[in-house]
Amino acid sequence: MPRNRVGHLIGLPKEIVVAMLVAALTVTVAVDLTGSGRQPEAVDATGPSTVLHATTTVPSTVPPTTTVPSTVPPTTAPAPPVTSDVVARPVKPAPVAARPAPRTAQSVPLGVYVGSGDPSGVASFAAATGTHPTYASDYLPTDEGWAGISNDSSVTWIAGQWRGSGYTLVLGVPIIPTDSNGNAQGTLAAGAAGQYDSYYVTLADTLVSAGAPDAVLRLGWEFNGNWYPWQVTDTTDAANFATYFRNIVTSMRSVPGQSFKFVWNPNAGDSFGGAYTPAQAYPGSAYVDYVGIDVYDEGWSTPPTPQNAWANQLSQSWGLDWLAGFSAAEGRPMVVPEWGIGTTSDGHGMGDDPYFITQFASWIAQDNVAWTNYFNYDASDGSHDLLDGQFNSSLAAFRAAFG
Predict the structure, then answer these.
(1) Is 156 or 40 the better-scoring residue by pLDDT?
(2) pLDDT at 304 exceeding the cut of 70
(3) N vs C: which end of the chain shows fewer Cβ within 10 Å?
(4) Cβ-based neighbours of 204, under 8 Å, separated by 6 or more
């Protein structure tokens, strides 16, 4: 429509009409530019008739809006592509386990024999040597016949002495007792035939009632020696001994409340020149809790030096090397129920011998011995008491190794 016609129709001067049209077009362009992502031109604040940086002639037809590309360049750095691979976190190395402390003689449970039924003697030995015994060794009488094994008063007295002492009782149990004159009151063959089983049922009942249901029992100890009536001299004796041992264990295990442990306990050395093998006298591991030998510091080699005597302890028949191998083969822990230094009536005792003490301590630490009992008593065969003043160097070595 012509401008003059518009101004005439609305009754306004044409300059005003033109100014109004310019303002309207400016708003329209600004709206279009805003919708397309472009910014409007700035308007001069001095008046609506002048548009800064724009053409003063405004066409009657508004040009089409500029097409904006559908893909707008990103204003920030693109994110890294996501992949399906899982990035493994670094794995921390597992902590290295602390190496166990070396085993020492102090870590091997220690027991002692100081005489029958004498807990205060064990305490005195502990104080004098700086040790902490946990086992106490004792013996049933060998010369009271079957009464010494099944008599309630004898067994009850011994068990009662150790009851409540805190020590585990390790008890030597004769399997062929004698009378007071030394006459044997039985045979291995009769024991294998089961003739003495009832005595051991009674013994088990008495021990349980007297407070020693967990006693460690050394049945027929040192049977390969020639000094006890239950000595095993040949293959027939060996077979009878093994069967008899099984009969005793079966009888004693039949008693309610018992938790006994049984030791198969030869002596170091061989009194019978290889007349039978240890295996022939072995009752089987189902009847044995510990395999042990008794070891005393004696010299039989020439010259009888401490070093030669110790070498013989390792290599002799039924010696320490044999013990380690046999116990491992049978799957039973090894023990030394009696050991000690001393003088002997036959002259073979090595006397005050600290070398034996230190070597023995090292051996039991290295060979994983379950427990030992030192024989600290002056007996009829010789002196062994570390505290009687004869063995001061050995006593000092004992304190250093076991205290």
Answers:
(1) 156
(2) yes
(3) N
(4) 251, 252, 253, 254, 255, 258, 260
Q: Are residues 55 and 112 in the same domain?
A: no
Cβ-contact 381, 116 below 8 angstroms = no
Rg (CA), the chain: 51
Task: Give yes or no: residues 36 and 167 share one domain.
Answer: no
Phi (first) and psi of residue 392, to 5 degrees: -65, -40
Q: For 153-197, how does the pLDDT look when each residue is reduced to its tens digit (9 = 90+)?
A: 889 999 999 999 999 999 999 999 999 999 999 999 999 999 999
On whether both 153 and 33 belong to a single domain, the answer is: no
> Residues 349, 200: one domain?
yes
Q: How far is CA 32 from CA 29, 45, 58, 67, 383, in A?
A: 5, 21, 16, 11, 122
Tell me which residue has tokens 């904006």. 68
- Which pTM value belongs to this model? 0.76
Domain limits at 9?
1-65
Which residues lie below 8 Å from residue 97, measured CB to CB, with a gap of 6+? none
Number of domains in the chain: 2
